[in-house]
Amino acid sequence: MNIGDIIAKRRKESNFSQEQLAEAAEISQSYISRIELGKEKPSFELLERIAVALNCELFIDLVPIGEQRRLFTPDEYPVEDNAALQTSTPTWLTLENARALTIFGIAYQKLEIEKNTLSTAELKALEGIIETCLSLITPKGGE
């Protein structure tokens, strides 16, 4: 099941039409349709807005544990457009590592903000995110 299938399923469970979800997430209905059909890959920011509109947790309800790495693949979410990152990035930090650190930073912020309110499922999802990040920044072949 891909992210579009999951969004469609959650939308239907919430009794939302594509138009209602689009309005709540502040995007077009046609874009929601293309996401659900797997023709578009939404940005992380857009996925967050969809999760809020569906009243669900992004990494628990929309992105299954273990699927985070597929969501954040290098070609889909380029970091090189960020000029500030380019000028301040140490030379040892690859783009893939920068992406992993970004994902980790988001997960860490969630933990800091909601540390007293995280459920067991949320903690497990956060653990999956951290494991994914670590696998991205760990050199291949034990280098």
TrEMBL record:
Q: Which InterPro entries match?
A: Cro/C1-type_HTH (IPR001387), Lambda_DNA-bd_dom_sf (IPR010982), TransReg_Diox_bact_type (IPR050807)
Task: Report the leader peptide range.
Answer: none
Q: Which UniProt keywords apply?
A: DNA-binding
Q: Which parts of the sequence belong to the HTH cro/C1-type domain?
A: 7-62
GO MF terms on file?
Answer: DNA binding; DNA-binding transcription factor activity
Q: What is this protein called?
A: HTH cro/C1-type domain-containing protein
Q: Where does the source fall among the domains of life?
A: Bacteria
**Gene3D superfamilies this protein is in?**
lambda repressor-like DNA-binding domains
